[in-house]
Amino acid sequence: MNTKILFSPLVFFFLCFTSAQAQVTLTIEDAMTIALENNFEIKIAKNNLKISETNVTFGNSGMLPKATASIVDNNSIQNSSQIRQDGTETALNNAKNNSLSYGVSLGWTIFDGMKMFARHDHLQELQKLGDAELKRIILVKIGQVNSTYYDLVQQQQALSALDTTIVISTQRLTLAQNRFSIGKASKLEVLNAQVDLNSDQVALLRQKELYANTKILMNQHLARDPKIDYKVFDNVTVDSSLVLANLLDLAQKQNPVLQSQIINKRIAELQLKQVRADRYPVVTLTSGYNFNESQSSLGFTSEASSRGFNYGFNATLNIFDGFNQHRNEKVAKLQIENTQIAIEQQNMVINTQLSTAFQTYLTNLELIQLEESNEAIAKQNLDITLDKFKIGTITTIDFRTAQLNYVNAKVRYSNAQFQAKLSEIALKELAGNINF
């Protein structure tokens, strides 16, 4: 027996194992934590929520007074002439005139048809809308992280299956070479074994490429260097306890898209209140303290100054505006109606998506059990076939068929787990209930 042929694969797999051990293991919990901290879209949504929170103030609602300071300085140089009532005439070239006024003023709207209170509630609802949007983006991104993570798990398992088939194909090639060397097999058997081994190695290389690209995609979701290397835990745990009725109930309470539609209806109602407020008068208190100084080179008064406190109020009432008030109120009511329709539509969409996804989820759970049984049967069949092949009582074609059946069964079992996990993630995302 050629010990060199057997020794080389052992060294190869030992080196691969050592390299894998040196890699950092990324858990799904770590991946979600990194995404929450680093993902760009989540960061933008968080900042947008902070903007909404910052806008919720009494001043932005128009409830607080406004104080302003002003200063005005006017100067002129003119050629002036004056004829007085008594007929006397005075004239002066390059006459200088200047006036200076400065002071502070205060204005406070004390009544505007309750518009300021509706505006404050409007700002609070916009904050809630920003919070719902942040939750939606987090759910989407965490869902993507989960899907990509378990895709990596599935691909890792596929790599393991391909590694196994290469080991078996290598053993087959070694047996064929040994049998050929003692005259019990033809050269054709050796060539067929070599071709199959090469095919397995090509499949392994393709799978490694897909695995590496998926890791880069995961790094993109985590907003970190695409060159960072890692491995994932090689198991998939599917939650098989989901109940459709519970998911539908959770979606009514937690689905961020539905919550956004409900908030939009509340915003539309507050906009109607603000429009209706224009029917009422607006009363504003005014006050101020002003200083005025003036100088004139020509005239009865060469210098004048004044200072003092002023106060009063302004009241305005819209009497007729070309029926715009009626039109604005009608439009606002139609917008409320549209938001109610949008809520009903979103309810139907969520119920449809949940029902469809749940049926897929149940099917995938059944497929897991079936494919697990198929893998066990295929493994048993391969062990028996391998023993028969070693003693030469089975053809290479039958052996290859059993080998491929086992690899395909293993890959299908892994894919069934992955698809079931995707269904679970989709259901929890629709229900707004992904744990992170």
Automatic annotation (TrEMBL):
Pfam families noted in UniProt: OEP
Gene3D superfamilies: Outer membrane efflux proteins (OEP)
Main location group: membrane
SUPFAM superfamilies cross-referenced by the UniProt entry: Outer membrane efflux proteins (OEP)
Signal peptide range in chain numbering: 1-22
GO molecular function: efflux transmembrane transporter activity; porin activity
Cellular component annotations (GO), alphabetically ordered: cell outer membrane; efflux pump complex
InterPro entries per record: OMP_efflux, TolC-like
Domain of life, per lineage: Bacteria
Entry's localization field: Cell outer membrane
Segments crossing the lipid bilayer: none
Record's keyword terms, sorted: Cell outer membrane, Membrane, Signal, Transmembrane, Transmembrane beta strand, Transport
Family to which the UniProt record says this protein belongs: Belongs to the outer membrane factor (OMF) (TC 1.B.17) family.
Matching PANTHER family: OUTER MEMBRANE PROTEIN TOLC
Protein name: Transporter
Organism for this UniProt entry: Flavobacterium hercynium
